[in-house]
């Protein structure tokens, strides 16, 4: 039986599989085309967009990229060499302490929200209560050191933003986890089937490079989209409209919350985009930085595929509401007003 089992996979290996370019190849092709057609592309941008658009776009990308690369590197190392069972061992058995500890453990995952979804799924599969795993899912991309350092660089003129983001992100994770502990139902979660040897098969150096490549190409794409959107809002959209949004507290809070959902930025780079909205009150920027890592379009899609649509349509609105309320409350506490 052993001989048959070990020999079976050799047959498919001899077959020629059609080549399918991955995300890294597509990104490389786009970069090559951009370099080759740099002249016509620059002329087109100059005709369609204001000259300051490219300056703002490049500035946001250049500022954010080092933090994105560092986050992907550290996240890849953790995914490859730190077993997910480590987090299970440090969590208490009771619900409230488990949720609180899981939220604090988010500091141990320097990466973006894209990587927290599969890790939360593994934690649930290995016996961690869903409320604690979800608290970890929300806190990891919001309060890890790389995100906080990036926020400090982006908001050098407003250092309180770092502490405000830490408090708001941690409170959002813990509060949502505690609420889910009360209202969550097992039937809302899609059953997960796993190989018992998954952790042993999915670890080590062979996981490091693919994990880094996947995380970087996905996160870099969202960074480019977000930087382009921010540059467009700062240059193409009439300043009077942005000033009108900024002059209305409720409108600015709602707009920044919805922008965070729609832009779906990586949490390691969103601070630079938020800082570029010069007409938005500081509390509105905190809303953007609190909502974005907790709920956005790409997270909704990932959560639907991982945990099921019945879960996502309940979890996303709950998270959005809690993040909005906590961000506003923390902002008022730190700045004593709307600023």
Automatic annotation (TrEMBL):
Listed transmembrane segments: 24-41, 53-86, 98-120, 132-155, 162-180, 216-237, 249-265, 271-295, 315-338
Chief place where the protein resides: membrane
Keywords in alphabetical order: Cell membrane, Membrane, Transmembrane, Transmembrane helix
Locations listed in the record: Cell membrane
Pfam family, one: ArsP_1
GO cellular component terms, A-Z: plasma membrane
InterPro entries, per the entry: DUF318, UPF0718
Membrane disposition: Multi-pass membrane protein
Family according to the record: Belongs to the UPF0718 family.
Record's protein name: Permease
């Amino acid at each position: 039986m052993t001989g048959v089992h070990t020999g079976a996979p050799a047959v498919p290996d001899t077959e020629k599989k059609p080549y399918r370019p991955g995300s890294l190849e597509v990104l490389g092709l786009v970069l090559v085309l951009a370099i080759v057609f740099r002249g016509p592309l620059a002329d087109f941008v100059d005709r369609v967009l204001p000259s300051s658009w490219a300056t703002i776009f490049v500035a946001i990308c250049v500022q954010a990229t080092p933090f994105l690369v560092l986050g992907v590197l550290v996240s890849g190392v953790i995914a490859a060499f730190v077993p997910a069972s480590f987090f299970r061992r440090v969590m208490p058995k009771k619900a409230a302490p488990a949720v609180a500890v899981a939220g604090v453990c988010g500091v141990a995952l320097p990466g973006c929200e894209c990587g927290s979804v599969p890790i939360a799924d593994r934690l649930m599969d290995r016996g961690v209560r869903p409320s604690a795993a979800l608290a970890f899912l929300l806190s990891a991309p919001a309060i890890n050191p790389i995100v906080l350092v990036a926020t400090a660089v982006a908001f050098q003129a407003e250092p309180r933003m770092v502490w405000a983001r830490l408090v708001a992100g941690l409170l959002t994770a813990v509060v949502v986890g505690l609420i889910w502990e009360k209202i969550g139902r097992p039937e809302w979660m899609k059953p997960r089937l796993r190989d018992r040897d998954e952790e042993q098969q999915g670890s080590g150096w062979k996981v490091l490079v693919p994990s880094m490549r996947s995380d970087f190409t996905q996160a870099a794409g969202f960074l480019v989209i977000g930087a382009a959107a921010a540059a467009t809002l700062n240059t193409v959209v009439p300043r009077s409209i942005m000033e009108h949004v900024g002059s209305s507290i409720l409108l600015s809070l709602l707009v920044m919350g919805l922008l965070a959902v729609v832009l779906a930025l990586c949490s390691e780079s969103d601070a630079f985009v938020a800082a570029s909205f010069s007409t938005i009150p500081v509390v509105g920027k905190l809303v953007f930085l609190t909502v974005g890592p907790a709920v956005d379009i790409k997270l909704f899609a990932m959560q639907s595929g991982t945990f099921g649509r019945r879960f996502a349509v309940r979890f996303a609105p709950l998270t959005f509401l809690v993040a909005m309320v906590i961000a506003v409350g923390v902002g008022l506490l730190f700045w004593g007003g709307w600023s």
